[in-house]
Design a protein that fits this description.
By secondary structure, this protein is mainly β. It contains 3 helices and 12 strands; from the N terminus they run H-E-E-E-E-E-H-E-H-E-E-E-E-E-E. The strands form 3 sheets. Strands 3-2-6-9-10-5-4 form a 7-stranded antiparallel sheet. The chain has a 3-stranded antiparallel sheet with strand order 1-11-12, with no helix packed on it. The chain has a two-stranded antiparallel ribbon with strand order 7-8. The chain is globular, with a radius of gyration of 15 Å.
Amino acid sequence: MALRKASSAFPTGVTIVSTLTPQGIPCGLTVNSFTTVSLDPPLVSWSLKNTSPSLDHFDAATTATINILAHEQSELALRFARPVANKFEGVATRATPGGAPAIEGCLAYFECRPWSRVEAGDHILYIWEVVDLELNTLDAPLTFHAGGFRQLLT
């Protein structure tokens, strides 16, 4: 599709969005559509394909974490992009104040609660309010450009 190919010219950061299912099981996926929407109130957004198996979990979420991946975490990004039974197996996490899983070693995380959900074509656009955050480092982020992971030049 032409739109997808042209959009690949724009580099993006790579995140893992994580929450807990109603049964308390960690659920997460790789997302590169993350962006800041507003500073006051503090709002961020990301989108999810409306046929995603994780859609029901994020629709039901009362809290979730957006984990900003470091350049060295490309394997983690690939793992969470695939349909793996237990994506969190062997992954070091800790609970945010609201209980959502934060992935250790990330550059930063944003703990969020739902603000708005918008049906947008073949995706759902989630706008969430940031209720907690942690900046661990400003090291090189994991970036995606032209169909692959790239390293920023410093």
